[in-house]
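Posting here for the record, re: alanine.
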Amino acid sequence: MVTVSSTEQGWSSRTAFILASIGAAVGLGNIWRFPTLAGENGGGAFVLVYILCVALIGMPLVLSETLLGRAGSRYADAQRSVADVAKQSGVSRAWSIFGGIEVLACFMILSFYSVVAGWVLNYVWLSGADFVGQLASGAPFAGGFEGRSQDEVTGLMGELFSSPGRLLLFHALFMAVTYLIVAGGVHDGIEKAAKWLMPAFFFLLVGITIYGMFEGDFAEAVIFLFTPDFSKLSAPVMNEALGQAFFSLSLGSAVLITYGSYVPQNVRLAPTAVTIAAADTLVAILAGLMIFPIVFSAGLDPAAGPALIFQSLPVAFQAMPGGAFIGFAFFILIFFAALTSSIAILEGPTAWTMESFGLGRRASALLVALGAFLIGTLCALGYNVLADVRPLAFWPVFAGNDILDSIDSVTGKIMLPLAGLGVSVFVGWRADRRLVAAQAGLSGAPLLLWRGLVAWLAPVAVFLILLFGLFPGLLA
Ligand code: ALA
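Prediction output follows.
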């Protein structure tokens, strides 16, 4: 048996843990998925349900998962951490099945995450070449993609999707960078990357949001994001919001348990969990406030779906002063966010592989990265040679999904909430109460409140939302 955490260095400080965890949380989920879903589901109503899901279910579960990781910190992998806590609590180790679901979900997410991050890299490349070209021609403040028609700019995404080689090249490149960082270890790889990338990310985020305030239609964006239209709410929309909260906070996906296992015992986990959840939500809202002013000022459709940031925004950047530079900075920002998340998503299954097969970090990370790359390849081919494939055609709510969307839906709408359900029941009802309270660092009313949310609200809400979200016919 290889005891991973005994052979690994943990985080060097509380700040390092917070930065790495915020890095894990803040990613494509915030910048790509959140604005897309908010745009498709009517804006304010979705945002409200999302915030409630984060505050009442997500935040308490962030604490539950990190404490499970630390309490079972003889192991870094999620499955064995849960088994260890079950053992310490004198209950069946079968509860570790939920840790196992988390590891599997994490692996599946990595496969498509890297494909979408590859699209981002493609746009970093295109917008970078565009900006350098403008710079060379002595017009550094020109709009983006000058000299190309609007159709040509929106067509860039179609060009990418119809080219398996290009999709796979950037998918491979992104996975390779992720691998190199994770292979460097917790301290010298993951922590160092977070310390550089997160401040750069925040700088770019605030900078572009301020730019949007002056150059975009900020007022309309605020109305869109904060005026709820409750007629837009339905069980599938609530399932979508809950799944998004899980995805964005990296819940139910082994990440927080594994990152929690590297936390020193003297760090108080409760305030840390609040910081992580609050920062992640703030970034999602800021991302909305960064993107929608630009979308509205260009008269574009906020419900454009997944193409919103890849097709709509480059068109908007065309007409904006300094658009070439802002476009380039925007895609770099998404790249940084995606990278700190993919590192965490690779780390979860890597810890499991190290433990399960007694392999070293580099070999384990390589195995996981290669496996996810292959599944990701199918996702990428789902836009061209496998475009007709609908893996979940038998299931009405997922019937129209292509390969990438199918994996995204199965993980985001089923596996993550299911694992979260298991974790909430385990921490709320089965794990040793004193152990849990001591790890959480809570007592008195805050402990009661947290316990109530984890033991009662989370299981009931997650169960109902899963049931009616997946089988909306039950409500009819
Ligand atoms: N939590 C990561 C994100 O939001 C997966 O992108």
